[in-house]
Amino acid sequence: MSDLEKLGFDNWFQENIDLTKLNDRQIVRVISVNKNSFIVTNGMNDIYAELTGKFLFNSESPEDLPTVGDWVYAQLFDNDTFAVIHEILPRKSLLKRKSPGNKIDYQLLAANIDKAIIVQALDNNYNLKRLERYLVMINESHITPIIFLSKSDLLSEEEINKKVSDINKINPGIKIAAFSNNHLTDIETIKSYFLPKETYCLIGSSGVGKTTLLNNLIHQDLYKTQSIREKDGRGKHTTTRRELIVIDNGAIVIDSPGMRELGIISAESGLEDTFNEIAELSSQCRYDDCTHTIEKGCAILKSLESGEISQERYDNYIKMYKESLYNEMSYQEKRAKDKKFGKMIHNYLKNDFKK
Predict the structure, then answer these.
(1) CA–CA distances in Å: residue 323 to residues 227, 238, 318
(2) pLDDT in tens, 86-136
(3) Per-residue pLDDT reduced to its tens digit, 294-304
(4) Is residue 38 located within the same domain as residue 167?
(5) Which of 88, 105, 120 is at the close of a domain?
(6) Residue 285 falls within a domain, yes or no?
(7) Burial 50-67 (b: 16+ CB within 10 A, else e)
(8) Whole domain around residue 65: which residue ranges?
(9) What's the pTM?
(10) 261 belongs to a structural domain
């Protein structure tokens, strides 16, 4: 097995290689991002990397830039201690969300993910509506979701089974595992969910135990976390960067910073996959442009009235449906303005150069 294969470079990526670009470049994987600098690996060395000026100049949106998990073409210098990134290989998947705050743009979380693991703690963090929001984001990226319920030592087995049952009602068949970071046997059980050469991304709010779990999986304190505040159960220090790690059974794991916000943009397919029973009913509505809020002949409203769909699930669907449409319109307007401004700058530089 090659060093790249151990990092998850499977047949899909091999079929998407442009061999003409390998004359003076190598394929490496991005394992860490810090603004416009990166750490990449060829399976033997971790290498500091930067983008070419052309790459950076031609990037029109965050999606054009490398993120953790990306495979890139890079030139290596100084005995493989410095790399220059020229281009991103085609992506198998891309996990992203709306940028936090009022900015309407995408924030990339990780690329080329096989499975995304949602970690929710069985304390005040547990929230089905937030869980549905995570599932929309993951399903939009066509990534397989798994749910880990941490801090299982806080609840009885009966209480845990009730939580699992509630999740199965909204997403039948999804893999769910409850565990405590304080129990070694739980960690060994959790480890069985990670398969060699597959890439996993841990996502969830701050303080749910993602980083502690990763520390337990690799048997070392990769990220030191300080004591937990009693008031809200969160660590004083949280992970602020994403990093890709290969654990001892050969699985590849990406830890992501805790998410305070989880906005969505243009998540039509993610909504359909997460709320599939509602999506199926929408095809039975009288009007093609039904908003599922006030129209007569709306199959979704009819099912809501009959109790076939719960009020909570309907409300969460409509909230994210409206949010997705609004953010998509705002994003497209922003892209149009950015392209117009970029074209103006390009023409200015072109004319200035001719002088």
Answers:
(1) 36, 28, 8
(2) 999 999 999 998 877 667 677 899 999 999 999 999 998 899 999 999 999
(3) 888 899 999 99
(4) no
(5) 88
(6) no
(7) ebeeebeeeeeeeeebbb
(8) 3-88
(9) 0.84
(10) no
